[in-house]
Amino acid sequence: MNNEFKFTINSIAFDENYQPSDSTRITTNFANLARGESRQENLRNALTMIDNQFNSLANWDNPKADRYSVELEIISVDMDIDHEGNGKSFPTIEILKTNIVDHKTKKRIEGIVGNNFSSYVRDYDFSVLLLEHNKDKPGFSIPENFGDLHGKLFKCFVNSDAYKQNFTKLPVICLSVSDNKTYHQTENHHPILGIEYLPNESSLTEQYFKKMGLKVRYFMPPNSVAPLAFYFFGDLLNDYSNLELISTISTMETFQKIYRPEIYNANAAAGKCYKPDLKNRDHSLTQIVYDREERSQLAIKQGKLAEENFIKPYQSILEQWSANYAL
Question: What does the pLDDT average to over 319-327?
Fold first, then answer.
């Protein structure tokens, strides 16, 4: 059996004219911003926040704080399921790509791919499989081989010809910190990423992303109020330029301010010992309307869609491929 699935990559601009597509997984994160009476204003405000944060961090040779702007692409990854090339594909992964426009030099600089990370299979694992496994059971446990298939699919994609033809560097995914962990400040300080934090214990998300081949480090960038989780291959601090790192920080911190204002738009910055609190009332709201409850409901809905259209009908193919897959 062929050990490689074929991937097709499509992209759409995430700008003030962005219209959510039914076939795009990542729109569940962004669709709230892109519909209703305030859709264009929401998008414009979010993009302005990203640009302002970028210029705040890239402050050298930038006296008016207006030298740069960030352009975003939603990258959709479809996988040919049965190797026959008969059009049967499934939307496996969606990520964001940043591009940087330098208005001084009139150059467009490639940013980082990854950033936000969405996956139907991850929705299935966390919102269907994990919930079913723990239903009516005392305590909490993780199903056997939890995340194995998803991890192998992700590694297969990153090592695919499609990925290498479209992107020059490996992905960096930037997520929120966990609200049930405690983070301790270290002495390590990076000029762009900021102050490094260490968690008191490993989280389920860390373990899940480790199966995808990703390591994690936690940094609180300058002028930020909480650390971000950076998942990466290789060497985060040396494999990427300052502008590349800033493009990820400015983009993902903006979305976290919208999604989780209690943590990332708090009025007090994280101290040396920090425990994120989603019930923190001392925070400010952005002027962007976002329905967090709907996002949680959609994760369950899409997890079930993955189960019905991918996991169950192609179970034997996926199990055989997973058993034989090795880098």
Answer: 82
pTM over 0.85: yes
Distance set, CA 286 to CA 33, 120, 260, 262, 266 (Å): 12, 28, 10, 11, 11
Angstrom CA distances, 129 to 124, 134, 196, 292, stand at 6, 9, 33, 22
Helix (H, G, I), strand (E, B) or coil at 84: coil
Helix H or strand E segment including 198: strand 194-199
End-to-end Cα separation, the chain, in angstroms: 15
pLDDT at 34: 66
Confidence of residue 33 (pLDDT cuts 50, 70, 90): low
Q: Got the DSSP string for 218-268?
A: EEE-TT-SS-EEEEESS-TTTSS-HHHHHHHHHHHHHHHHHH-HHHHTBSS
What's residue 85's pLDDT?
52
- Tokens (6 digits) for 232: 């990466």
Per the structure block, which two tokens stand in for 148?
């194995």
Q: Cβ–Cβ contacts within 10 Å for residue 69, how many?
A: 17
Going from N- to C-terminal start, the domains of the chain cover 6-317
| Sequence-ordered alpha helix ranges (H) in the chain | 27-30, 39-57, 120-124, 130-134, 148-158, 161-166, 204-210, 242-259, 261-264, 292-306, 315-324
